[in-house]
Design brief:
By secondary structure, the chain is an all-alpha fold. The chain has one domain. Helices cover 72% and strands 0% of the residues. It has five helices and no strands. The longest helix has 27 residues. The radius of gyration is 16 Å and the shape is globular. The two termini are 16 Å apart.
Length: 104
């Protein structure tokens, strides 16, 4: 179920992000966000949240005994496209959101 929810969010947000980039350009988000202090604060907040999510991805990857090479593609996507990277990671590896007591 987690994979379905995350995959749906990933798909919808990726399509919306693609449209924004197509329509306004890749750097437009930064240009608009840096014009006013409240917008800059939101951008900084998103960078912090993205960094925390990336850290959680690294810890999850390590805890599950996966090679560091397994997380590199998600790191690249996170740096280039923000939360699409963590959404993709948790869609591919949804174990963090699945109950350990599936029978209960």
């Amino acid at each position: 179920m987690a994979r379905l929810i995350l995959g749906t969010i990933l798909l919808l947000f990726s399509v919306y992000t693609g449209w924004i980039i197509w329509e306004f350009g890749y750097t437009s988000v930064f240009e608009v966000s840096l014009r006013e202090h409240p917008s800059t604060q939101v951008l900084i907040d998103l960078f912090i949240a993205g960094g925390l999510l990336f850290f959680i991805m690294i810890l999850d990857n390590k805890r599950r005994g996966r090679s560091i090479s397994k997380i590199v593609p998600f790191a690249i996507v996170t740096l280039a496209a923000g939360s699409i990277g963590p959404l993709l990671y948790f869609t591919v590896y949804p174990e963090l959101f699945e109950s350990k007591n599936k029978g209960n």
